[in-house]
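Researcher: Quick test of sequence recovery. Tokens follow.
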């Protein structure tokens, strides 16, 4: 038996990447009924010949996403353009919440640095680094940051998220020219058109990493997140929260709240805190 990762599911077959190469696999009738196999699943296979194999077992998942349907994702890279389309920090913060709520590591890629002066890039990079995130400023035009981004994708299963036009496809094409993903393509409307049946595939990157070929987190509803849980997706709050007078503290109107104090003292960014309150209110209904 061999262990591998399901990288594609097409027409009842599962393509499984193993140290001995890729196999086209099918499911044994016995386990077919009670198993839903997702791209990203780790499976045990029994080769029939050098190209075909039978899936004997599916290993427990670390996590799974619904849209796109994919298991065992290590991280999600939020790609936000610094300009064109203009940077929307509330939308970025919303992406960060939704990604962390799905138990994924969130990494921020600030793309199109070529379109804004350096003096405008640094404050945003610092803001999010101080909040506790890994931030990579990139430009497909100048090549800045591309190697750093490529290194972050090594050996990992990643999905890219972020608004349409931010440069997700361009970045992947630069890292792996073989992809030839369409650039400047209008975002696909889910639930309509011929793309709805489009399969998910984990594309191979240089350095053994893989990336989902569809943008992740197209739905950014906060629904399902507990209001008391929201604060954990603002990593910069965590350090200060133990000093709040109340426990638990929503860091909203409670007296002697260390997080609010941190905002006043400039330890926590006012904009981030505002977005936290906005999301908290959104979760009230
Ligand atoms: N100036 C500039 N334009 C970029 C950069 N990256 C992507 N673009 C352009 O932005 C547009 C949208 O890119 P695309 O990769 O399709 O974005 P996606 O919707 O996130 O996949 C295209 O016209 C790209 O050529 C960059 O770093 N700098
Ligand atoms: Mg694209
Ligand atoms: Zn508090």
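Model:
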């Amino acid at each position: 038996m061999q262990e591998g990762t399901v990288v594609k599911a097409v027409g009842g077959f599962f393509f499984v990447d193993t140290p001995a190469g890729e196999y086209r696999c099918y499911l044994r009738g016995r386990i077919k009924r009670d198993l839903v196999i997702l791209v990203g699943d780790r499976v045990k296979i029994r080769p029939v010949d050098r190209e075909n194999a039978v899936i004997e077992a599916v290993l427990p998942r670390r996590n799974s996403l619904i849209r796109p349907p994919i298991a065992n994702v290590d991280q999600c890279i939020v790609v936000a353009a610094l300009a064109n389309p203009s940077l929307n920090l509330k939308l970025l913060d919303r992406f960060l919440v939704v990604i962390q709520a799905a138990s994924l590591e969130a990494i921020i890629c600030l793309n199109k640095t070529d379109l804004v002066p350096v003096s405008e890039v640094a404050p945003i990079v610092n803001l999010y680094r101080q909040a506790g995130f890994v931030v990579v400023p990139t430009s497909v035009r100048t090549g800045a940051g591309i190697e750093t981004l490529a290194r972050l994708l090594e050996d990992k299963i990643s999905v890219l998220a972020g608004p349409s036009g931010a440069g997700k496809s361009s970045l992947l094409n630069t890292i792996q020219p073989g992809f030839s993903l369409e650039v400047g393509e209008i975002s696909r409307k889910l639930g309509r058109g011929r793309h709805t049946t489009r399969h998910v595939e984990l594309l191979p990157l240089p350095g053994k990493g893989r990336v989902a070929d569809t943008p992740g987190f197209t739905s950014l509803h906060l629904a399902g997140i507990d209001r008391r849980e929201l604060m954990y997706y603002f990593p910069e709050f965590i350090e200060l929260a133990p000093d709040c007078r109340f426990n638990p503290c929503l860091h909203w109107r409670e007296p002697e709240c260390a997080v609010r104090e941190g905002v006043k003292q400039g330890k926590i960014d006012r904009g981030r805190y505002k977005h936290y309150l906005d999301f908290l209110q959104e979760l009230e209904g």
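The first strand starts at residue 2 and ends at 10.
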